[in-house]
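sorry for the late reply, my laptop died twice this morning and i had to redo everyting from scratch. anyway the thing you sent over, i finally got around to it. pasting the sequence first so we're on the same page, its 216 residues, then the predicted structure underneath. double check i copied it right bc i was rushing
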Amino acid sequence: MILALSLIAAGADILWVGNSPMLNYSAGQKKRKQTVWLRRILLLETLAACHGLASGLLHHWETILYAPTSAAPHSMVYALMGEYDSHRTHFATFQVIAKPGPITRLLLLGTQIAGYFVQGLICLVYMPLCFQLARFTAEAASRVYCDLAKDIAAAQVPDIANADVPAVTRVFYSLPDNTNMRQVCLCIEADDVFHAKWEHAATHHHHNAVAHMYGQ
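ok and here's the structure:
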């Protein structure tokens, strides 16, 4: 089941990033480029959210089975759920712009279910590896949003550049009403850079990572 969903997601990604010879490259270059960006981001954020969900749940189970080892206000579960909430906001931001159809939504849902179980299995086997994979995902995401911000500045993706910033994004990042999408991309890039650093700390320090990153 997981393998089948993963193959479906991989096939969809090949079409989305424009590597299929069936796509008409000569028609609507900018429109196609915008579609590629939006679908790539939706898939990326769908997979990125799996880590916070799976790891947060396992750490919650650990709290049920064992007494908490730290009295720090920022617990590991708090940090992981915060990471998940960030990716959920990123996804919601571009979902409003992309307006995916029902088939795309089902593909994304299937991909997240598969990713959730795979991440959960990795967490059970070797937690540091799970954090390391999440770090690579966060680093990739930061580069994606940096490149998208450059394309917006170069007027390569006008529909994304001129889109209204969703309310959920402005509230999450405490942004003013006149914020544009390029500024949003830079906020998300900075968010992912922080997550990559935190995941790197968690890979090596695990339970001490929260105190390490929040200065406690």
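The radius of gyration is 18 Å.
thats about all i looked at so far, will dig more tmrw
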